[in-house]
## 1
Amino acid sequence: MKKEFYNVGIIGGGLMGKEFASAAARWCHVTAETPTPRVVGISDPNPEARKWFEKLPELKYSVADYKELLEKDDVDVIYVAIPHNLHAQVYCDIINAKKHMMGEKPFGMDYQANAKIMKAIKNNPDVFVRCCSQHPYYPACQELIRWVKSGKVGKIIEVHSGFRHSSDLDLSKPINWKRTISINGEYGCMGDLGIHTMHVPFNLGFIPKTLYAQLSNIIKERPDGKGGMAPCLTWDNATLICDSVNEKGEEFPVFYETKRMAPGCTNSWYIEVYGVDCSVKFSTDDANGFWYTENFGKEQAWCRVNIGYKPAYSTITGSIFEFGFPDTVQQMWVAFFRELDGETVDFKCFLPEQTQLAHKLQTAALASNLHKVVVDLDTFDANSI
């Protein structure tokens, strides 16, 4: 370990900013060797949003203008969780200020915004940049990843990866910024959920070659919170079918599913890999369960192993207990700080170049759905949309 700690500033005082600050505050929970994050700054134009952070013992800066944090020499890392339309400007300002950064998905509202961020990264090669995606750090999902990497599944038949919500099934729910193209972007549900579904397949080396998309805008208007109705112009649900290839040159379909209207689902993230020798699956609906198949001649049976609290990076919690969402956030940040510190990381946070590929997929999905065609990703020009 090269550094004992990193000073972190947070831009955006919402839910995920609080989740990181909470994870950092209980860093004593982690027993794996890793630098310690110290939250020293919060920036949000809303003073009420900053109040929660101002009780943190090591906080030194509480500012409305994020640029004030970038001017502080004692701020090493910036975590930024803000609406999509602000990503290009703020992310580029952070990177150009030579601050290491963890940015929320989708890393730019559209392909062009992402290109600006990627240019800033290229111009600042010494700045460490990653994208936030915590769900793969469940121990049962890490077990799935190990099985696939080891070749236990054999020749892959197909892969399913998805994220399902159901809160928008409440038709009385007022419209929010994620249903507004000017703030969320035209990707709709894909922009907010897509990178989460792509993290494991991309890190396993499953590269999409063609894409066919089915996008649905189910609810056309919602209450505007002022007694009237507002148009809903973004996509509620999306399914992307990608012919993909792995490092062995084997081809198979990968299905990416992002849904804001999925009956029965609160916050369901899942990954399923079906193979000739065996199949494996994980879902946050059964957070401690790792599922795999055993073959009995012509028959296969699903078997469940209760993985328990066995994270990639050790903590004080015993293995007999249960693992939860706040733990995934902390484990993701351990991976971030260890890699920033020059350590080898088996499962990395989402890479900037992977966000570029994610944007290409999502832009191609808009084109595929519009023209009802299969898109060849090798020849597709994402700037044409």
## 2
Amino acid sequence: MGYSGFKVIKEGLFGQKGWRPVWRNPEPKSEYDAIIIGGGGHGLSTAYYLAKNHGMTNIAVLEKGDLGSGNIGRNTTIVRANYFLPGNSEFYSHSLKLWEGMEQDLNYNTMMSQRGIINLFHSDGQRDAFVRRGNAMVNQGDDAILLDREGVRNLVPYLDFENTRFPIYGGLYHPRGGSARHDAVAWGYARGADQRGVDLIQQCEVTGIDITAGKVTGVQTTRGVIKTKKVAIVTAGRSGQVAAMAGMRLPIESHVLQAFVTEGLKPVIDHVISFGMGHFYISQSDKGGLVFGGDLDFYASYAQRGNLPMKEHVMEAGMTLMPMIGKAKVLRSWGGIMDMTPDGSPIIDKTPTDGLFLDCGWCYGGFKAVPASGWALAHLMATGESHETAAGFRLDRFRDGVGLMDEEGTGAQHNLH
């Protein structure tokens, strides 16, 4: 089905009766060339690019629930390419370029809004760090503008500039950054993959991975045995549990990250704003709700909910940055399971088991990485070689310490990333 302004108007005039299902709901085949475990943003984008870029269509995405019911629908929708270290910088730069062409590529409105991101700094040391980061971004080919105090005030005058404890010295402005509709991203990739012949199989939980003589031969599921020679684990915070089915122990921890949304308000926040001293970030959705989040709940958990102390901490940071937020009513909160690596950077790699691939460890960065993650994993599965933008995301870097990418300089402590 093609989407257009004419189609929307026509359906509005004739009772919305001409729409067809966006993707099929097929029964699983007995065998596929490749299977992707996980029907979230990364899994669906991998399937799409396997079909589009490499002509692999006899593949299946297996999702234990509904498509897009995991972290792809449980995040604050921020898209950015403001990374500093080589390895990360090239990857997220590539991802942002894919974001910019996504709606045309998928013929689907993902509500991509390049409203710009402002990372505030509150000390001379933070300013120096952001100068270095901004220069690295420009050298990579992305955009970065250093703003002084008045430059920030001109863009976002409603912040508390007189805060004695955390005065605003300025900010690093990333104009091409912004946000997108998380659900629409999943739906767009699902629709695109289905159109190319990929089987999207919902309510199909993987319960085991079959391995013979060091090679993948298939998977056990709640809907029967499915044979295949290639399996990709793309299950975010559940990656450690799924990898254990193949006898692997991954160097990740799973933590909960909460997010919040307020009642709908008139347009007030035109950008995405990040508070440098409180790990607080906020934007305004197209519906008018203020969407914001903060730190992880600092304990390992598989629960898609958080605790009250962290809710209070995030609200305090919001009030510190912009006291006006205290007048807004919070409608709901939710939690996503973050798979945190020791250096804060992801893993896209082959495993010692022939035919088994990993895509995990996205920490806070999963949503903005959706297109480039799928692109790189599809390339790896199809060719056996890492894509140039993801060459540093190797699993063995945690064994030998070579090539670690500690973007925040916080050391090998998972929850600090």
## 3
Amino acid sequence: MNMEFYRKLPIPKDVKEQFPITEELSKIREAQVAELNKVFAGESDKFILVIGPCSADREDAVLDYISRLRNVQDKVMDKIIIVPRIYTNKPRTTGEGYKGMLHQPDPNSQPDMLKGIISIRKLHLKALSETGFACADEMLYPENHRYLSDILAYCAVGARSVEDQQHRLTASGLDIPVGMKNPTSGDITVMMNSIKAAQSSHVFLYRGWEVKSAGNPYAHAILRGYVDKQGKSHPNYHYEDLYNLYETYKSSGLANPAVIVDTNHANSGKNYLEQIRIAKEILHSCRYSKDVRSIVKGLMIESYIEDGAQKICENAVYGKSVTDPCLGWKKTERLIYDMAEVL
């Protein structure tokens, strides 16, 4: 093999023992997961909002942002369930660029995955202990969630990973809701097949073990738009797209039909300000059709303290994304309150 085995990393069990979750925090997390499950099962009409930075880049700004969400959550808790995004892994189309805190806990330093593993666990633990939020992360690697599996409330499988067999089978063994994004091509049959795989039980190879998963009944769709063969972005959040997904679900036989709509990425053409309009259009579609409302369980929004994005540098603006552009805090807060008024 033409690679250097640099160092052996600690297994998840060891990291969890070094940075344990308390029984009290575990109960808080379990209660939040149960509340999310009720929404996906159609037992609750609350609306889920998976919201936060495109990628977590520094602990202080992320915790500052989430503490602001805590204040808003307390005011809209009768209608909206906020799940903060702490995305510690960032997929890169060409392999270049910032790959997230798991790789680089300091964006201005060289990759250090040992420090990264510790940093992401400490960040998720602090978010839970300081704000009472169990958060969301992306399963960029089929094993990375193991370092956080006792802390997370929600997990997403990205557009580039959703066709991968190991991601699908791993999702089938998780005990939290897992969103399966449509692939970058936009083919929703790929997404539906991934949901079916995630909802089913499997025997497969995992971390050197032969394991059997129970199947995850809360695996669901995430619509994030798509890119055509000319590289142009196209949305799939419009009423027709949502109703088509409703019809597809109806004939699929899948448990708990549900979709979270991603308001950024190809749905906005990465024009982050469009997320406000897109969110309001989706809510209008939900009011127009009870069938659409029955499957639309929430939104995914990319938001941070400051509007836009910036390049990684020594004098980076505090709370401004170093990857995709995000909606700033003032606009975010106003949007959440506007949503609560019409739900």
## 4
Amino acid sequence: MTAVSVSHIDKTYGKVHALKDLSFTVDEGELYGIIGPDGAGKTTLFRILATLMRADKGTAEVAGCDVVKDYRKIRNIIGYMPGRFSLYQDLTVEENLKFFATVFNTTIQENYHLIEDIYKQIEPFKHRKAGKLSGGMKQKLALSCALIHKPEVLFLDEPTTGVDPVSRKEFWGMLLKLKRQGITILVSTPYMDEATLCDRIALMQEGRFIGTDTPQGIIAHYPDKLLAVQSDNMHKLLADLHDYQQVKSSYSFGETFHVTLRDQSPADELKAYLKQRGHSDVNIRSIAPSIEDCFMLLSNKTRHER
């Protein structure tokens, strides 16, 4: 069954076109990731689905309920965690959780099984004010508050932004456990590496989805042979790659440049060219594309088609 359905949603803020004729569906029990940079439109989409904002055009349903006509019902069956920490910072951890349970006419005890794995990590600090928690602890508290009423659909807007790598890993471990309990999860993130943990993903740019599939499906459609290129002078290397006519694309990726070549041009010719340009210790090797490589490809393709 379909848990979330979006049809031709459009939203503008003055001259800014935040969402552009967006349509997609999320299946019940699915962990669906929306991957894109800041300004792509992720937060606007989540606010519309959480009934906090109306779209200018189009329709959307959550668990079969219209986000405009049935907004009261939707607010009772979803959990929403905004990108910015929005709990009461002057209340303690325990007071925040009790407050949200009371709002939804439930108790911590009734649904403790849903949050047990998460809450037990912050329970030693239950008398600490929320504003005094670390970034990772704040996210765990916010997720606990979003889950305490046992929502059918969980919306998480960039939940790991600004969180340390260890807490990010722990947080995604929690999401996978929640998915196994049958909760539908729609999560947005600017981190491409988190995409591989989702059942399906949508790559988003400037208010549009530029690619939608399973993470493996997105990668499988990468059409070119991808090379990782290094030399002793990485700053000069970027300019020299740009000047080489057979280079189709090149961009920085960690300690290397990821490069594709036109017309199946041999890597040996590129290596010889770079040596002629004065580079030594030239290292060129074939690599498997990542989600970020696919995003760059689709992003450039979309720009050229406009």
